[in-house]
Amino acid sequence: MAVYTDTSAPRHYHKVVDCQYACPAHTNVPEYLRLIAQGRFTESYLLNRESNVFPGILGRTCDRPCEPACRRSRVDGKPVAICRLKRVAADNRDDVTPFLPQAPSEKNGKRIALIGAGPASLTVANDLLPLGYEVVIYERHARAGGLMRVNIPAFRLPASVLDEECNYIIDMGAEMRYDTPVTSLKAVLDEGYDAVFVGSGAPKGKELDLPGRWDDGAREHIHIGIEWLGSVHFGHIEKIAPRVLVIGVGNTAMDCCRTSRRLGGVDTKVVARRSRPYFKASPWELEDAGEEGIEILENHAPKRFVVEEGRLVGMEFERLEWTDSNGKQKSRVTDTVVVPCDDVILAIGQDNAFPWIERDIGIAFDAHDMPVIDRTTFESTRTGVFFGGDAAWGPQNIIWAVEHGHQAAISIHRHCEGLPVGERPAEGMNLLSTKMGMHSWAYSNDFNPSPRSAMQHAELVQRFAALSAEVELGFTPEQTATEVERCLNCDIETHFEATLCIECDACVDVCPVSCLTITPAAPEMDLRQLLSAPAENLSQDLFVSNTLPQTRRVMVKDEDICLHCGLCAERCPTAAWDMKKFELVLPYASSASGAPDLHAVNA
Amino acid sequence: MTSIAKPPVRHPLLRTNALGLTLRDYEGAMSTLCAGCGHDSVTAALIQACWELALPPHKAAKMSGIGCSSKTTAYFMKGSHGFNSVHGRMPSVTSGASAANRDLTYIGISGDGDSLSIGLGQLSHAIRRNVRMLYVIDNNGVYGLTKGQFSASADVGSTSKKGDANVQQPIDPVLLALTLGATFVARSFSGDKAQLVPILKAGLSHNGLALVDVISPCVTFNDHEGSTKSYKFTREHEVEISSADFVPLRREITAPGTGEEIMAVTMHDGSVVRFRKTHDGYDPTNRESAYMHVRACQDRGEVATGLLFIDEKGADMHAVARTVTKPLVDLTHEELCPGNDALQALMERYR
Questions:
Q1: Average pLDDT, chain A
Q2: Beta strands in chain B (DSSP E)
Q3: pLDDT tens-digit profile of A400-439?
Q4: What is the Cα–Cα distance from B225 to B160, expressed in whole angstroms?
């Protein structure tokens, strides 16, 4: 028989809000877009900050897992430009300092050390400083930000934005130990901290050890991508030769080739082992690079560095042909080709490196020489030592680092309170009707058919004039006004009360996207074929009501492409359907004391 | 009333019919009826039926009079012709339209007020003439547009929203049509599209007037305890005495595997209505049997539903009047106006 959907717990509705569900930090996207629509940029910024801590930075650099998930892309092909709207809130906010969390003057007597001043550590500090912790942050560079500062070029992320958001946290009273690389974790532990968090990133770029790599005249022209970006950031490198090959096609490769283009690499090419559909870089970064005249060579596997007369003159590649056999991709070499170049930048991945962690202090390492970390608590095998960000399981992205920071902060707080770290505070929810009158709702329910707004970019001449010239100019007010209305308000849930239904079919008839069906109960896979339109997207749940009073059938809703227009609720004569605003209540360190079931559901 | 227009987005997996149209292409304007009105479900069933038949919208005409029901012609097939006539006069206007253009599919939507009170004579004569049309009566037992007075179809003992009981005998359009010689008589329920849609499709394919009485609850004035036209009462008292499947001409007829007793009636265009046996001794091609069963149900307080009577051999208005086979619009000027000599010759015949 069908399993009735329980909407009294957050699970079902949380999954309906696709963007929020896909975001590692579960940022409440629809609500902050609504605040932007109302011109309440400061409130929107602060709501963002609760979960993702760095709205200005992420509004420019986020990997945007929310956008591929966006329901709008299943409706008209293109997701809402969520990420760039986040930037709109950050760019237009008023002074937010009066509303930021503050550290109490009276401390709680606990002292914790954070290693590395990147997004993960800063998030831990952000969550724990207001609780009275003394926080010491060790940073090997002279400024905070970690990879956000050193590896993301300034034309994507201006230093002023980075400084401001890092300082919001640091100014709460973190003790910053700049220019202090940690060379021994044991030494840090010996200082007697109540907990230590390792957020040191994955700072080691992968090597490509092919013939010619270490030859005289070659090795000084072959650079490791993230190290090279760091050297550019610190001003150690100001120029590159005209012909540059960037090996690899991830997001770091995109930063490398675009930086190279700005430093004199007028003929910069990116070389990829595979074809375009398999590129690791985000589509928008590929687009931006393409706009700047970067050519990408597909299906080229590096074979050797060509060194002639004591000087790097090119790279030899095997050209590959890929075939699909039983779902597995196999390659075949067709021929080899030499591509001339003056410099090579290797951007083929990053590794973690922990030479500074002693192996005899109770922190277990696995076969890949990575620390063993609990997936839920972020604790290592040594009690009181936690890992997060890229340092935990290798390179991910900033928004994951932020979420790691939040979870680690919960663990650290519970550890310091003497509570079991494995017992996690539960997620809660609020569910509130948005009905204001006969046909009036507390949200903008009309469907806006506008296509996605295109980001305005600076002219190429201006881009190449200065390394720090920001490429994306942000949305105009008109673009912002249109783009926020493309949001389908997935947090305004169609909430159904089976006992009130008289089975008049009004909702089924009016639904513009054939989401609803009244049908005899059946197992889910059967139901999916019985609906007004077949529900073939298995990643999207069905809502199945309790049995209806008159005919004992059930109301089924396919959540896949519901527009949240509210017509079902407007047409319902008995208010069995209502549009209710779902608010996910996320646990943070501040709410992590005491028993985990403190957070009752307010439905 | 609804504040926003229906978003112009459809489900990507929505099927198309033989014309390449989706269900949404058969929709009309947003309904302004009360939320939950049975009439909106009848509209949805009509959209479904016309889409399934792949009826070209420009080859249909939607005809109505006055009342909640008569508003609904605006809510489907926005690409069709339409005429919103004087109260109760839809049957005559349709007769005239059909006389002029016999090629269009006529869909008349009326209510218990429009057809059983002010337009009862019009209904009777349209049945008598056997105008080729689908005649839908959205029957809710009250005058919804004037705040819920009993209509001519209200049952004795049925109470108003305030609690007063009706004392006058009801007019049952099904029994009336059977006695007047209608060639297609059905009754259904707006809350049961599985039954209603095949009946509407059969009615649209019928060669003559197809009368479909649809119990269509008024949520505002007649959906309370004591009403005999509410959703709840109809669901509890509905008895399907004849179950019909409609098989359109284009589809291959496959024999049912259940060994059920099936009776098939072939329509004039070659499509088939198949009746599953539901009631002992019921014969939907026998007028007396149909009348008897519907009366018997009425006596037991039951609402008889289904395609109750069908006679595909009856002559329609054009056959009786031996009219020209083409719509007038397709005739040449010479055929329509043969000149003074022809007129004089005709006049001579009457001297």
A1: 93
A2: 60-64, 81-84, 105-111, 133-139, 142-143, 149-150, 184-189, 209-215, 238-247, 262-266, 272-276, 303-310
A3: 999 999 999 999 999 999 999 999 999 999 999 999 988 8
A4: 9
What is the DSSP code string of A17-81? SHHHHHSTT---HHHHHHHHHTT-HHHHHHHHHHHHS-HHHHHHH---THHHH-HHHHHHSS---
Please give, rounded to a whole number of angstroms, the shortest distance from the CA of A356 to a CA of chain B: 56
**Mutant choice from B2, B10, B11 vs A, greatest count of A C-beta within 10 A:** B11
Does B3 contact A570 at a Cβ distance shorter than 8 Å? yes
Chain B nearest-CA distance from A44, in A, is 27
Which of A435, A548, A571, A572 should be substituted to probe chain B, the one whose Cβ sees the most B Cβ atoms within 10 Å? A571
| Count: domains in chain B | 1
Give the nearest partner residue to B36 out of A76, A438, A572, using CB atoms: A572
Pairwise CB contact (< 8 Å): A573 & B36: yes
Task: Inspect the interface and report whether the beta carbons of A534 and B191 lie closer than 8 Å.
Answer: no
Quick check: B36 and A550 CB within 8 A?
no
A561 in contact with B, Cβ within 8 Å: yes
Put simply, whether B29 touches A (Cβ < 8 Å) is: no
Q: Between residues B262 and A395, which one has the greater pLDDT?
A: A395
Examine residue B69 and state whether it is found in any structural domain, yes or no: yes
Who contacts B106 (Cβ-Cβ below 8 Å, separation ≥6)?
Answer: B60, B61, B63, B94, B97, B98, B131, B132, B133, B134
pLDDT in tens, B132-172: 999 999 999 999 999 999 999 999 999 999 999 999 999 99
Q: Do A389 and A125 meet the contact criterion of CB atoms below 8 Å apart?
A: no
The reply to whether B348 falls in a domain is no
CB of B32 within 8 Å of a chain A CB? The answer is no
Question: Does the beta carbon of B2 lie under 8 angstroms from any beta carbon of chain A?
Answer: yes
Q: Which CATH number covers residue B166? A: 3.40.50.970
- Residue A83 CB contacts under 8 Å (≥ 6 apart), including other chains: A58, A59, A62, A64, A66, A67
What is the C-alpha separation between B120 and A582, in angstroms, rounded? 53
Q: Does the reported pTM lie above 0.80?
A: yes
pLDDT value of position B283: 86
Does B34 lie at the interface with A, CB-CB under 8 angstroms? yes
* Domain span at B142: 23-321
Distance in Å from the first CA to the final CA of chain B: 62
- Residue at B1 is within a domain: no
pLDDT tens digit sequence for B23-74: 999 999 999 999 999 999 999 999 999 999 999 999 999 999 999 999 999 9
Contact, A30 vs A20, CB < 8 A? Answer: yes
Domains in chain A (CATH in brackets) are 101-203+352-416 (3.50.50.60), 205-349 (3.50.50.60)
What is the spatial distance between Cα A377 and Cα A524, in angstroms, rounded to a whole number?
34
Looking at the complex, does the CB of residue B4 fall below 8 Å from at least one CB of chain A? Answer: yes
The whole-number average pLDDT for the span A527-540 is 92
* pLDDT, tens digit (0-9, with 9 covering 90-100), for A301-350: 999 999 998 899 999 999 999 988 888 888 899 999 999 999 999 999 88
